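sry for the spam today, last one i promise. struct tokens for design, 210 residues
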């Protein structure tokens, strides 16, 4: 039986939407709950912006209303009224700007969280398939060990050599997978090639098993 590694290269674009993948020991992961929380936070910030804009309009209107009376006013009183209205408008504008900045930050965080979640899904799919192939290799090694226990002479020597080679390559591939799993989710692809190379070497040896 030959274990194909080609499927690992196709995992990234083939992550199925809505399918929950277990992190399988990965130390860094972004979940759907994290994405939902970031989106909820963004929505709250956007609502705060709208509320700040409404309050700003009301504060400016209140300032104008306060100085709109049915009596003559002096030039000094009119100047004071204009200054107070300008101050209310400035304060309201600053409050709106603060809320808008918080909303922009929430939007950036939501985008980053979504990107991390997609990376988590892709990494977990890659790890899942790699670990399945490692498990299949272990079964092949067990079969060879059983054959070697019933063989003798040149055949046993050949089987023992193949077992040793496969076990060594299996261990290197497993170590590469473990390193990938412990990497930051945003950097997991820098370790992906190490896993792919190790698995290809293992697969090549499996193809030569006699």
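last one done:
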């Amino acid at each position: 039986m030959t274990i194909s590694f080609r499927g690992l290269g196709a995992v990234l674009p083939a992550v199925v939407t809505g399918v929950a993948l277990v992190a399988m020991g990965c130390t860094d992961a972004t979940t759907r709950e994290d994405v939902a929380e970031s989106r909820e936070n963004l929505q709250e910030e956007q609502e705060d912006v709208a509320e700040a804009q409404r309050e700003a309009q009301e504060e400016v209107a209140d300032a104008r209303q306060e100085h709109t009376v049915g009596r003559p006013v002096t030039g000094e009183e009119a100047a004071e009224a204009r200054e107070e209205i300008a101050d209310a408008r400035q304060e309201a504008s600053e409050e709106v700007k603060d809320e808008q900045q918080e909303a922009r930050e929430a939007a950036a965080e939501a985008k980053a969280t979504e990107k991390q979640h997609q990376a988590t899904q892709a990494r977990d799919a890659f790890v899942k398939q790699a670990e399945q192939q490692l498990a299949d290799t272990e079964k092949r090694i067990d079969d060879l060990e059983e054959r070697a226990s019933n063989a003798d002479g040149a055949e046993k020597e050949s089987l023992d050599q193949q077992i040793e080679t496969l076990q060594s390559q299996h261990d290197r591939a497993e170590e590469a997978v473990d390193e990938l799993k412990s990497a930051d989710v945003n950097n997991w692809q820098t370790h992906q090639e190490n896993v792919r190379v190790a698995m290809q070497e293992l697969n090549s040896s499996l193809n030569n098993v006699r």
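Residues 179 and 191 are 7 Å apart (CA to CA). ok im logging off now
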